[in-house]
User: Fold this.
Amino acid sequence: MTDWTMSFPGNDIVRLAPTEKRIPQEMAQQRLGIIMNGVTGRMGMNQHLIRSILAIRAQGGVALKNGDRVMPDPILVGRNEAKLAQLAKAHGLTRWTSNLNAALKNREDTLFFDAATTKLRAQLLRKAIAAGKDIYCEKPIAETLTDAVDVARAAKDAGIRHGVVQDKLFLPGLLKLKMLIDSGFFGRILAVRGEFGYWVFEGDWQPAQRPSWNYRKKDGGGIILDMLCHWRYVLDNLFGEVKSVSCLGATHIPKRWDENGKPYKADVDDAAYATFQLADGVVAHINSSWCTRVRRDDLVTFHVDGTLGSAVAGLQKCWSQARVNTPRPVWNPDVPQPIKFFETWSEVPGDNYDNGFKAEWEIFIRHLYDGAPFKWTLVEGAKGVQLAEAGLRSWKERRWIDIPALEV
Assistant:
């Protein structure tokens, strides 16, 4: 079994290994009771429940330094009892409830996880913190920076452990990109260009691939709030701390149809075009759109240029081109392009990676039980909201916005 080892600022070592096999020898098993809120939705169900927690249970838990294993024991929480019962039955689980308050009172369940709507997240996190629960949640952690900082301070004051999902750091493509960075492959990094998104059908003659709340302001929708939170931790961890942002948002498609086929007004941004100034002079630009048709290697790509080499990373794969292998194009619009540019790139090897959401779950669980380093806390989540709020302000005021250090 191959281990992939990556280091991030603030974390000594991050090891991502393929799915562990069951270990037959005798060992102590420790139970981790998890209140999982919002797992009937797409992300909560697929990535967090099925591909993370249930996968960890199937492999026999998370191994600790002393040989013990931590076995997650989830209780599914949501508003629709029928969906909860069906989901639990489908996966051999017996614990579910629509009563969050009752679940929070159970002292045997010590971790609260939330993947429900952004609109209610800050309120639910405060309630869980007040109940003494450790916290692990999706991003954004709040709709506003004020609420995000308030939640992070509440967690700090309560002395609980807390973490935020930063899943894109654990994508195979970005892990390969991180390996190139750590090896010095790029030399001095000059610029980063990101392209993210795809065409989300309006819902009239093709069902939409994303929930309708994503496009309604009153429900906490908007691509800037959603995606700039991602780009904050990707940029900070891989390329340099974000120092300022210039962002233009757009509502390209103002009318969509919901899950019941009813038309509604889409009143938030469905595309964002953002430029970032990073530490050490690195410039990044990322286009995020639910209104674009894909003609690139993947649904998200990051093109990184450096003095000694360049690379393009997608979700799974990464291609590189060193300075010594760079072709010499000459501008001549009067003849067909003689260079087949895609063929001049080499794929970075490696294909034995675990699911990124599951990998971070395991790191967080080891943080709870082994005290292993974990830097992706609610403070990091608040930084994401800070950048999203600055992006919205930049769009509104049509100017660059500086990003000050965040004090919590």
User: Anything to note?
Assistant: The CA atoms of residues 202 and 256 lie 5 Å apart.
